Amino acid sequence: MTPANTFKFERVGYRYGRDEWIFRDIDFVVDAGESIVLLGANGSGKSTLLKIMCGLTFASAGRLLAFGQEITEEHLENDSAAKEYHRRVGFLFQNSDAQLFTTSVKDEIAFGPLQMGMKKDEVRARVDDVIEMFGLSNLADRSPYRLSGGEKKKVALASVLVLNPEVIILDEPTNGLDPKTQRWLTELILKLNDQGRTIVVATHNLDLAHAIADRALILSEDHRVVFDGPTRDALSNREQLIDVNLIDEYFHIHEGKHHIHQYRHN
Ligand SMILES: Nc1ncnc2c1ncn2[C@@H]1O[C@H](COP(=O)(O)OP(=O)(O)O)[C@@H](O)[C@H]1O
Ligand SMILES: [Mg+2]
To answer: Which residues line ligand 1 (CB under 6 A)?
Structure first.
């Protein structure tokens, strides 16, 4: 038996309002348990594609299937269908401030489970678990707005993971994080994928892509999918990375490993 694809984009087109088309004819499939990375320069369309996957906006042409079901505005107008979808598919926004809105870290993490109608005891147990796992105990009663960027990101991610989603979609998760928090997040993403979660990450961080994903999709600056294949092939194609504005000419490959120099070799 073939399980239903987690996501299937079928000739998806998109435009904001009546403006010109951002996308045309986007086709790709994400299977359950995959970890994939969406690479592209600023403005290439990563966030827009992720928002379509999460049901925050909808294809203007073609269709998106998720778990075998077409995801349309009409489908998600049904309250229980929307709750079910948002429980299964967690989304970490590019900007944590867009995700945080309650008066304490504890309430922030409890908000989703309460919305889903979980019993108070279960919500408390889950919130305590996640707070423990993220080392947020000393911040539990603080206002999310008064936290550092890295702490906000942790709280936002905790409020996604508390629902135990089977798909986790992360938009530029390492932006603005210090190196230690980046490493923590990278390891967490790997662990979540090992546990069977499907992971989709948008980034222009090539080290993150290298660390977490076997498969990469590359978006060009004119919003086309120009590559879909193994991440190591994506990262070793220097011409293509320059072409889509993901690296500049100082990018090097040494003994099969990519890295970036500030200055050119002599
Ligand atoms: N709300 C919006 N209205 C009109 N155009 C938008 C809006 N949001 C994004 N765009 C345009 O859509 C394209 C893709 O943007 P986005 O998905 O945010 O790219 P990325 O996440 O890769 O930086 C860009 O050309 C951007 O200017
Ligand atoms: Mg973006």
So the answer is: 16, 19, 22, 40, 42-48
Which residues have C-beta within 8 Å of that of residue 187, sequence separation ≥ 6? none
Residue whose Cα lies nearest atom 24 of ligand 1: it is 43
Sequence-distant (≥ 6) Cβ neighbours of residue 146 within 8 angstroms: none
Choose the residue to mutate in 14, 23, 44 for probing ligand 1, maximizing ligand atoms within 8 Å of C-beta: 44
> Look-up: residue for tokens 């299964």?
88
What's the 86 CA to ligand 1 centre distance in angstroms? 23
- Asked if 68 and 10 count as a contact pair (C-beta separation under 8 A), the reply is no
Residue 203: closest CA among 40, 30, 7: 40
Quickly tell me which residue has 């889950």 as its tokens.
Answer: 126
* Beta pairing, strands 215-219 & 225-230: antiparallel
Q: Which ligand is nearest to the CA of 49?
A: 1
Two structure tokens written together for 109 = 């993490």
DSSP one-letter code for 138: G
pLDDT digits (tens, 9 = 90+) for 227-255: 999 999 999 999 999 999 998 876 565 65
Query: Token digits for 151?
Result: 């702490």
Gap between the Cα atoms of 58 and 12, Å rounded: 9
Residue 266 lies in a domain: no
Residue 2 in domain: no
* CA–centroid distance, residue 217 to ligand 2 (Å): 15
DSSP state of 45: S
* CATH number of the domain residue 224 falls in: 3.40.50.300
Domain total of the chain: 1
At 163-210, the pLDDT tens digits run 999 999 999 999 989 999 999 999 999 999 999 999 999 999 999 999
